[in-house]
Amino acid sequence: MCIQFRSGIRRLLMALPLFLGAATMANAADDEILIGGALSLTGVQAPLDEPGLKGAKVAVKALNDAGGLLGKKVKFINLDGKSDAVNVGNIAVQLIDKGAKLIVAPCDFDFGGPASREAQKSGLVGISTCASDPLYSSWSLGDKQFTLSMWNTTMGATAAEFAFNEKGWKTAYVVTDQFIAYTKSLSKYFVSHFKDIGGKILAEDKYTQGKQDFSALIARVKALPTKPDVIYISSYMPDLGAMIRAFREVGIDSPVMGGDSYDDPGLFKALGEKFGSDVYFVTHTWMGPEAHPDMPKFIKLYKEVHGSEPDTSFVATGWDTIMLMAEAVKIAGSTDGAAVAKAMENNTFNLLTGKLSYKSAKDGHAPDKAAVVISLDKAKPSFLGWRQPKNPPAP
Amino acid sequence: MSQLLQFTIDTLSLGSLYALMALGLVIVYGILRLVNFAYGELIMVAGYTLYLLSASPVPWLFMAFTAVLMSIFAGIATERVAFRPVREKSVTAVLITSFAFSTLLQNAALLFISPRARVVPLPDVFSQTVEIAGAVVPLRNILTILCAVLLLAGFALLLKKTVLGIALRAAASQFRMARMLGVPANLVISVAFAISGFFAGIVAIFWLGRIGSVLPGIGLGPLLVAFIATVIGGMRSLLGAVVGGYLLAFIDVSLAHLLPSNLLQFRDAFTFTLVIFILLWRPDGLVRGPATGQRT
Questions:
Q1: Phi, psi for residue A368 in degrees, rounded to 5
Q2: Which of A136, A242, A300, B128 could disulfide-link to B211, CB 3.0 to 4.6 Å?
Q3: Residue B235 domain-assigned?
Q4: Considering only CB atoms, which chain A residues are within 8 Å of B218?
């Protein structure tokens, strides 16, 4: 009710300049395009949003250095979403009030959704930097909303195909962290695809982030009739590192697999040389020229802007979100929401996180995107290549 | 047999950590009748000290020593910043200042270090295992138990045999009377916070030794555990905190082993149901402390 009231006022304010014939009411200057961000710098969402924000800032600088967009300067304002869904929504309203034409939404359905819904209400395109739950779709958020990330359907299925087809692992033990939607849906798609292609799930167990007690899980793995060929763990830091360590310490040496939450140098260091081997994960990209020829250029720019090397490849999702917006605006020739959304649906984009095209709004804006598989050996990651599953499970 | 042994060691090592956490919280509560909600951040401070020292060439023991020192320092700082200025005024004010101090420390870590998990250095012994009668046990768990036993014994001696200990106990039981008999209030309270920081520092070493990394919100888990353990054990008794800690670990580990996997995600619900039953049976907690006077 309150939000409706506010957005009503906003529409009125936005319409006023038209009637008055004066642009003085709008905050955004005519010679710039404002992109609004609601990424969280504090709270539980901060670890996921901060890298994206850093990458986005580099992209904005690169765009402006190359002459801007449609002859205008690109301006990017991010207000702290504070890991609070209501606050994220309010910030989106505030930014749209300021004249934002595009919205960068947080990297999660629960926290990013509110920003996208506000963008949709105002007829603007909103893109989440890396929300991978299939809930992040045009079905639930509207026909101008997208996520830059592959969906968990792809992320889970890629792991299943890599394990079964490439490695020949026939049996799996699955641990699912129950704390957030992302980890739950990721295991769901891994399990269903692994079964579809002929694998066998020996057992599934649940864990809740923060418990720090893995004794029960260890006892269960040891009690399995056969040693699992692979252990699929859908969790995230810091417990993820602790869990893999706990398994390895007691001599459970089956290979471990997981999703993009493994893509964190913190995990590699937490495992160390001793336990950081035989770990495989599916993620967005790889910070080297093998993944994309432009990657070294991006890393160089990143260092210029932030003064240090990126500490996770998630920074590339922020860069890509801005670049994807810019490409689509160029094709559309304007920042009009409907035109930009159309451009995004009808084109293929060559991004640092892979080639990306979207299905139509009717099909949920499902991203058609490949994933990167990375292996860890003695805590050193190496790039195994791009993979795309044949028939990922339906969301 | 080996399973039983495994279970016992798991329970004892987790219980030792819980007991130390609870003791650190209750030592301050005993004197001030106030829960220090910035207690979890003392663990965080020790964790980030380890992280910041990890690049330096100093031996690990020195890092751990510095981390515990920093935690003690942070404990004393909590008292100076959040408690002392408003202690005489109102309970609500202290409650709010302790929350504020906690938020301040967390956000400082967020801003100046990173919201992402940072790895803490661990010595080799922390990742070694020993085999006892067929059970593979991380050496770290045995070290935790030994360390807790030593600390608890040492702390008991301190309380019983030294002037400082007697002053602490007197302050915990009748603060106003103790002051009248010449126990310096500020000193006793500062010492209580320092001891609280010391326990938090030791807990940090072993707790982070399990996790392997530190992040700004790391203190919330231990704070909750400590709080629940003291409630079960009896908020007025130091012994109660220790009993509560071991009991909570026993409940946690048994449920983890006994519950079928589809109920495992609701383990907390089972734990807290048991806690409620314990409190219905013993509303003051398991161990009754000495009769107490008014808060200062």
A1: -100, 105
A2: A242
A3: no
A4: 238
CATH code of A132's domain? 3.40.50.2300
Residues A242 and A141 in one domain: no
Measured in angstroms, the CA of B201 and the nearest CA of chain A are apart by 18
Domains held by chain B: number: 1
Residue A393 lies in a domain: no
Over the stretch A203-258, which tens digit does the pLDDT of each residue have?
Answer: 998 888 877 778 888 888 988 999 999 999 999 888 899 899 989 988 899 999 99
Crossing angle (nearest 10°) for helices B220-233 and B267-281: 30
pLDDT at B192: 93
What is the tens place of the pLDDT at every residue in A267-321?
A: 898 888 889 999 999 999 999 999 999 999 999 999 999 999 898 889 999 999 9
* pLDDT > 90? residue A72: yes
Judgement on whether residues A85 and A204 belong to the same structural domain of the protein = no
How far apart (Å, rounded) are the C-alpha atoms in residues A191 and A204?
9
Inter-chain contact A213–B268, Cβ cutoff 8 Å?
no
Q: Is A202 helix (H, G, I), strand (E, B) or coil?
A: strand
Residues A91 and A133 in one domain: yes
- What pLDDT score does B296 carry? 40
In this structure, is residue A392 part of a structural domain? no
Strands B129-132, A367-369: pairing kind? unpaired
The mean pLDDT value for A182-195 works out to: 94
Which residues of chain B make contact with A264, given a CB cutoff of 8 A?
116-117
Range of the domain at A240: 153-283+372-387
Amino acid at B254: S
Q: Above 0.95 for ipTM, yes or no?
A: no
Residues of A in contact with B221 (CB under 8 A): 210, 212
**What's the rounded Cα separation, in Å, for the pair A188 and A192?**
6
Chain B residue with CA closest to A205: the answer is B261
Q: Which domain holds residue B90?
A: 2-223
